[in-house]
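Thread: Modeling a multi-component assembly for a lab meeting

Hi all, long-time lurker, first post. My supervisor asked me to bring a structural picture of a complex we are working on to next week's group meeting, and I have zero experience with this. I have the sequence lines for every component (635 residues in total). Could someone generate the structure of the whole assembly? Inputs are pasted exactly as I received them:
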Amino acid sequence: MTQQIKGPLKEIHFVTGKGGVGKSTYAALLAHEFALRGKKTLLVEIGERSYYASLFGRSFQYKPQKVENQLEVAHWSSQECLKSYVLSLVKVQALYKLFFENPISQSLIQVAPALAELSVMGQITSSPRQYGPHGDHEVLVVDAYATGHFLNLLRAPEAMAETIQFGPMHEQSQKMQEVLAQSGMCHCHIVTLAEELVLTESFELYDTLKKELNWNSRLVLNRYLNTTLKARDLQNKSQLLLQALHNKLFQQETAIQVLKEKDNAIRLMPLLERIHSYEDFRGFV
Amino acid sequence: MTMKPRIFIQMGPGGVGKTTVSAAFGFYWASQGKRVLVLTIDPSRRLAQALGIQGQKGAARVPFEGLKGELHAMVLDHGEIFDSFVKMAAKKNPLVNKLLSNKLYIALKTQLQGSQDFTALIELYHRARSGDYDVIVLDTPPAEHAWQFLEAPLRLMTLFQDKIAKWFRWIGDEDHTIWSRVISTGTRQVFKVLELLTGSEFIQQIGDFFKSIHYFQDQLRDQIKKSHDLLKDDQTEFTIVTTQDELKILESLEHAREIKSKGYHLRRVIMNRAWPEDGETLHLEGFSEEQGLQIRKLLTLLSANQKTAIELMSRWPQDVRVMKIYDTLKSSHDLEKLKEMSDDMMRAFE
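Re: Modeling a multi-component assembly
Sure thing. I ran the full set together rather than chain by chain. Output:
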């Protein structure tokens, strides 16, 4: 189904991958590249922890903050998203305060499984749905959850639409599903490493996204060793360090081969000596 | 009375190879002549195949020739464990079927944060009591914080707290009038927002859930408490599995602090895919000059990446033993690989 895109937002880029593969760093790089090309970009981290606080050296909240020309960063915790969603529904500040300060509704939020994910998804898609608060960005880069939790996030609208058969929540859940299926709107980047377990998980995710949403995800191989050396140059060496290097190169060669079978345009992100601040990063681009 | 088995709980951040290390750890004990069970969460297809537990229900013996003891492995099926746990607590009460088909219950048993941790613990408790094993190794779900696992039972218990449960049961009651007088106007307003948010059908499901769980809440609480007590038992030891990656070590140090401060027995850290210490001179005979340069460049880059990680390693608690599994495993066969890893462990144990 093709739908006319309303509002300024043209593209949503989700960045995911197994825990610790470097998705946040890659998401920041991606956002930086869009900003360099003159697109008004919002980089968002979801979840409770903030990685960008240490990368950019300052804390981020719900409201986007400018970090460079055309680039803003925000931190959307599910609690915050739910608040904004509830407020847009009930419209009365006092009532919404009453709701959030009540221990019973707090425990319900914990129990209702898809509610937190749904409100985050609602926030991400608020611009194309023209519902709830949204900014004027053209590109949204979401530093999303790790694999399993990420799928829960994407599946939340469908789950909710099934659980609740009518009412505003049902309608909006359906609209979120439409945004996810809208061609050209959503893109997914799976960050991976040249390690067997990580690769397997990335491929499973790639296939699931293809099957459920018909997305062709981009595969990104992080910590790539940029060298002309081949694993076979280092075969049968007795020194432990050379053996370890042989293993690394062998894993990398195997990984690139299998990755290219899925996505011919894989992206290679070289291993850098350090990325501790945003400045290290800009030097890299 | 049967002998209590030694229990090893393997914790650590995601993506460090915890499942493989847990299997290798079990392999080590089996090679020492013990009857071992490895309870695992989500093994890769290859590992499951190698262990012979792919698609298996329950525990299966791992086919490896020449082991002195026995190695058994089992993939935890959370939904199934949760169901049988509830059925057992309900003791044939017919209401249990209503609960098992409740939408909220179904979502709860698979999706609620901590429900996987909880079912892992329940299974551990039952296997520990069976007397079938000398050693049980539990591979825990990856978690950002150690408390997510340690406190899963207690968090689940708060669900059954009477104050909250009572409130939800009211929704399930057909006669709202009695309760309407008891609950305050404020609470009723909150209820209205909830209904707006989630729809009346969902609210009804919640009410049903708490009504049907009410009848066996005491047994549930009792079971949860017993399995939690097992974690603090003297026979239960915690291991942290991590890699030599700065972020993973930082996360693991945090885990170590949490485990120790809550009084659990943290005994060892297993550093998986450890990078060999440099310092010795490289023997680069037989390489061209260009190759030699490339090798040095890569090794410098890789060791620069390890620098902070190595500095951080000195921060482990004093009484915790650090064992390394090097990133130089030669075998491509998975069971052989487990043996190689287990040999690395043996060296560290001696």
